[in-house]
Structure formats: C-alpha cells, structure tokens
Amino acid sequence: MSALDGAVAAAESVPAAVLVTGGLIGGYATARVTGVRPLGGAVLAAAGAAAAHSWWHRGGPATTAALGGLYVLGFGLSHPLAKRIGAWPSVLAVTAVNAAANAVLVDRPGR
User: For residues 24 and 57, what is the distance between their CA atoms, to the nearest angstrom?
Assistant: First the structure.
C-alpha cells in the first residue's frame, strides 16, 4: 500500500457529516478570523471535495448530487439567514441540516 493509498483509506474512514461540518464551520471561521474570504472558500471547497468522494463511494451519483446540492444551498442560504438570526446561528443551523442529512444518507452503519 502506497502512502497515497493509506491517505485515501484514512480519509474514507472519516464520516461525511464530519467533513461537511468542518467545511461549513471551518470555512466561515477561517474567513472571519483571517478576514480573507477566499481562504474560507478554499476550506469550504476542500472539505466539500472530500465529502463528495465519500458521497460517491457510499451513496452513488444521485446521493452525491443531492448532498452536493444541499451543501452549496446551505452555504448560499446561510448569508440571508444570517441577516435574520445572526452569522454564527445561521452557520450552525445550515451545518446541522447538512450533518443530519449526511448521517442518514451515507454515514449509517452498513452503508
């Protein structure tokens, strides 16, 4: 097993719910702390790509499309929602929805 194979195997063992949580919360926190929005976007995109790998292998193309859409929608909806309930509550709300969907659709035991 090569180092790359080991890294892929390790990444595949991480629940997708953890990856999307890291992407949404980590992306927002990175942008907020550094003041560099593209850096936050890079965190969001990297975690999304890792999650998409899991979605594809655990759920197939339809699940990947659904969860990918939800991830992007969560990011997009967090902005107008933040105007109503605040930034952190908004990020946490869309993250909770994404994490729950991932837990049900791809992270269940036996999937």
Answer: 21
